[in-house]
Specification:
3-stranded parallel β-sheet, 8 helices
Length: 187
């Protein structure tokens, strides 16, 4: 409470904490006092007693996201641990049968849609997770989507978007999907 108030007061921007992993118990109180947004990642729930966070339980003062620059993208995560993915497919997506591999675009779209409809104030998704909904646009190799692997000093900030901004802006089918998702979510 000595340094953070000065940082928060120095800007009109919303401040978001990367409150992931082992976070001291005092952090939640400080974040609440200073109105700092939390970072909510469904695959990294803050409750140690659950395997996945419940998007509907995200606090309003939070940012909902699927992954960060230091994590696997949605498509990578989907194939990292098949039993965990199967559990997610059945319990969080409420779908029966075996989880499809690799992640199909229609299912990626469903996951993106669920994040957009969370009660979080903001939903910020990486371009790789957005592109996961379009099987013609996304990269063939999901591992090429990874931005950073913190434990590997030779793999930092390696991702380069394979489509120019101009080409992406002209991609009516993809932009229509995003527009629909955003509109349906009420964001």
């Amino acid at each position: 409470m000595k340094k953070l108030p000065k940082l928060v007061d120095a800007t009109r921007m919303l401040v978001c904490a990367e409150d992931l992993g082992m976070v001291p118990s005092c952090v939640a109180w400080v974040m609440n006092e200073l109105r700092i947004l939390s970072l909510e990642i469904q695959s990294m729930p803050k409750d140690p007693h659950v395997r996945f966070g419940h998007l509907g339980a995200n606090p309003y003062r939070s940012v909902s996201t699927i992954s960060t620059h230091d994590m696997a993208t949605l498509r990578q995560w989907w194939d990292e641990d098949w039993p965990r993915t199967q559990d997610y497919f059945n319990t969080m997506l409420h779908r029966e049968g075996p989880a499809p591999h690799p992640l199909p675009g229609w299912l990626a779209r469903d996951i993106v849609s669920r994040h957009l409809t969370s009660p979080s104030m903001l939903c910020i998704l990486g371009i790789q997770d957005w592109m996961s909904i379009d099987e013609d646009l996304r990269l063939p190799d999901p591992n090429a989507e990874r931005i950073n692997i913190p434990a590997n000093p030779k793999h930092y900030w390696r991702y380069r978007m394979h489509v120019s901004i101009e080409a992406l802006m002209k991609n009516d089918a993809f932009n229509s999907q995003i527009t629909d998702l955003v509109h349906l979510s009420g964001r």
